[in-house]
Amino acid sequence: MIYFNIAGLSPFNQVVQQEVATTLEQFSQLLYSEEGIHYYRKTTQGCRRQLAQWLHIADARHIAFVPNATTASWLVLSRIHWKPGDHVLTTTHENSTVRKEILGLHTRGVQVRTLDPKSPTELEAEIEHILASTQVRAIVISHVSHIDGRIFPIERLYQLTQKYRALLIVDGAQAVAHIPVNFHDWQPDAYFFPGHKWCAGPMGTGALILGKQFAEYGEVRSDRGQESSDPLWTDFEIGTQNIGLIAGFAKACLIKQQDELKIATLEAFRTEVRQELSKVSGLRILEWDGPHSPGILSLTCLGKQTKAQLQAKSHDISWKTFQFLNNQEQTGIRLSWSTNTPETDVKSLLTFFQNMS
């Protein structure tokens, strides 16, 4: 199989799998003895510090481990003191499971406004206009679109939310370990990402990063009572964690940190694939007037004949198909790759599309 769905699930790294197995084996000898509890805490806190170092997060206590991005979005949205009449801004490029959580706020009287951005400049202008004229409680937005890989101007939006005192909640599922993400100079109120996509970690892992203002503004419902000295993650980690998976997740992130993303290689792949696909009649590359991530390129079929050709010939190639939020009859194809994608697979992909023209 030729695999071009890294943005959905990365191939498992044997080193990461070994880290999971070794950690679980060591813990199984201790369990919840005093020594076992010490091992459990030491392991999870060490992994927390490792992620903080990689992403330049000043306080590791603001990192909570979560099983996936959808759970993280639910945790964050469920802990905000929503009031009837509050407004939430989001976009047409959000993952369907996260979007479901956003739309669920309607039951609390929250108004959800979905923007369809065409460029970073247009998006910023539209959001600032709404922030200045409407009581927006939060912006919930992806850092990188899961549809076509466009990079949203998150740091600029952060500045706007600081100015108008709105919350910024970011889905980083397609960003972390794909493009540079660094929280040294800024940190949104909540930022979450899973371990099984670009981090190439185990399924059932992820991280939720919480900004200081998320607690300072009194936005969070807490069950800690008077124990306000507890780290912020304690409000978001539910029950006992699987330390084997967490250790594997941290190991995968360490590998990515040492790999330094190799963005130039991903960009070279994208440029080559884009040039060849632009020559194929019946296909249109999906892009906006702004930056794109290097490991994703998406396209759509302009006619039924081209769509039928793709369906008939693509059984040996794995990619992501999707429908557009504003046009369910239109089908898109998302191609995604990593630095570990064999060059022979890229050539096979190009040959496949060239034979269509």
Can you walk me through this structure?
With 357 residues, the protein is an alpha/beta fold. It folds into two domains: 2-9 and 262-354, Aspartate Aminotransferase, domain 1 (Alpha-Beta Complex), CATH 3.90.1150; 14-259, 3-Layer(aba) Sandwich (Aspartate Aminotransferase, domain 2). It contains eleven helices and 13 strands. It has helices at 14-28, 34-55, 69-78, 96-103, 120-133, 154-164, 212-216, 243-259, 263-277, 304-313, 343-354, and strands at residues 2-3, 63-65, 87-91, 111-115, 136-142, 167-171, 190-194, 206-210, 283-286, 296-301, 317-318, 320-324, 327-336. The strands form three sheets. It has a seven-stranded mixed β-sheet with strand order 2-8-7-6-5-3-4, with helices on both faces. Strands 9-10-13-12 form a four-stranded antiparallel β-sheet. Helix 2 runs parallel beside helix 8. The longest helix has 22 residues, at 34-55. The protein is globular, with a radius of gyration of 21 Å. The two termini are 23 Å apart. The relative contact order is 0.17.
Euclidean distance between termini CA atoms: 23 Å
Major pleated sheet: 7 strands, mixed
Pick out the low-confidence regions. none
Q: Report the top-level CATH class of the largest domain.
A: Alpha Beta
- Count of DSSP strands: 13
Task: Please give the CATH architecture of the largest domain.
Answer: 3-Layer(aba) Sandwich
Total discrete domains: 2
* Mean pLDDT across every amino acid position: 91
What portion of the residues fall into strands of 2 or more residues? 15-25%
Q: What is the CATH T-level topology of the largest domain?
A: Aspartate Aminotransferase, domain 2
Order of H and E elements: EHHEHEHEHEHEEEHHHEEHEEEH
Work out the helicity level.
25-40%
> CATH H-level name of the largest domain... which superfamily?
Type I PLP-dependent aspartate aminotransferase-like (Major domain)
Strand order of the largest sheet: 2-8-7-6-5-3-4
Oligomeric state as shown: single chain
- Rg over C-alpha atoms, rounded to the nearest angstrom: 21 Å
Molecular shape:
globular
Q: What is the number of helical segments per DSSP (H or I, 4+ residues)?
A: 11
Give the structural class: alpha/beta
